């Protein structure tokens, strides 16, 4: 499953525009048509964004994406986040943990984790 997560993250990076990525069992049509640009994605920085802080259109897009994601895939993503010390540290600095992450985005070497707080 970790390989699938990595493949989807690399595919999201190669799209050129921000793409929300989760470890889904079936990639979307655009991801399936986009070959990975490289097998090793370098993350230069990490951002943590509360979904409540997003513009309404962006928030709706994230929530729609999450609505089509099953819990098993979400748990796999959260385990991957926990395995990346820099990501866990960035979440902890905001008083959050991986269980609150509902989606991620990778663009231009920036990993953005979208968290949903109570």
Protein described:
With 118 residues, the protein is an alpha+beta fold. The protein has one domain (2-23, 42-115). Helix content is 43%, strand content 18%. Strand 3 (101-107) and strand 4 form a beta hairpin. The longest helix is centred in the N-terminal third of the chain and has 13 residues, at 2-14. It is globular.
Structure summarized in a few sentences:
The chain has helices at 2-14, 29-33, 56-67, 71-82, 85-93, and strands at residues 20-21, 45-50, 101-107, 110-115. The protein has 118 residues and is of the alpha+beta class. It has one domain (2-23, 42-115).
Largest sheet: 4 strands, mixed
- The run of helices and strands is HEHEHHHEE
- What portion of residues belong to β-strands? 15-25%
Q: Care to count the β-strands?
A: 4
| Rg from alpha-carbon coordinates | 13 Å
Oligomer: single chain
In whole angstroms, the N-to-C terminal distance is 29 Å
* Helix/strand class: alpha+beta
Largest sheet strand order: 1-3-4-2
């Amino acid at each position: 499953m970790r390989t699938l997560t990595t493949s989807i993250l690399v595919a999201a990076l190669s799209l050129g525009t921000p793409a929300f990525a989760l470890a889904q069992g079936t990639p979307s049509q655009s991801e399936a048509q986009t070959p990975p640009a490289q097998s090793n994605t370098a993350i230069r920085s990490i951002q943590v964004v509360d979904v409540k802080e997003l513009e309404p259109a962006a928030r709706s897009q994230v929530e729609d994406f999450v609505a089509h994601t099953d819990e098993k895939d979400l748990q796999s993503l959260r385990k991957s986040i926990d395995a990346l010390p820099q990501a866990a540290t960035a979440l902890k600095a905001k008083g959050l943990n991986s269980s609150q992450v509902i989606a991620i985005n990778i663009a231009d070497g920036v990993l953005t984790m979208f968290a949903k707080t109570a």
